[in-house]
Write a structure and sequence with these properties.
CATH class of the domain at 6-82: Alpha Beta
Radius of gyration: 14 Å
Number of helices: 2
CATH architecture of the domain at 6-82: 2-Layer Sandwich
Oligomer: single chain
Strand content: 15-25%
Number of strands: 5
Bound molecules: adenosine monophosphate, zinc ion
Helix content: 10-25%
CATH superfamily of the domain at 6-82: HIT-like
Strand order of the largest sheet: 1-2-3-5-4
Amino acid sequence: MPPTCIFCKIAAGEAPATVLYQDELAIAFRDIHPVAQTHVLVIPRRHIESVNAVEAGDESLLGHLIVVARKIAEMEGIAAGGYRLLVNTGPNAGQVVYHIHLHVIGGQRLRHMQG
Ligand code: AMP
Ligand code: ZN
C-alpha cells in the first residue's frame, strides 16, 4: 500500500469515512464532496491505481465492485429511479485519487453525459 494513498487508509480504518458497506474485497463510503444527493465511492481493498493498471485476473474483483454498487443503490433507495456508475481514468478524465474507485451517483435527475 502506498503510504500516501487516502483510499488505502480508509480501507484500513486509518482515515475517517462514512462507510456504508464493507466486505473482504471492497468497501463503500460517502464522497466528501457529493455532486448529487447520493454520491458513494466503491473501492477494492487492494490498491489498483486506475483502469490503466487493471490486469487479467482482476475481472471478478471489478465485477464485485458493481455488485456492491447495486447493493448501495438499493440501500440508498435509488435503484428503481436510476443512477450513474462512473470511473474516471487519468488526467483527461480528471482522476484525482489514484486508487481505482466506482462513483455511484444518483438520488436526482442527472444531467446527460458531456464530453
Ligand atoms: P476522481 O479521482 O476524480 O474520480 O474523484 C475522486 C473523488 O474522491 C472525488 O469525488 C473526491 O471528492 C473524493 N474524495 C477524495 N478524498 C476523499 C475522502 N477522504 N473521503 C471521501 N471521498 C473523498
Ligand atoms: Zn490505495
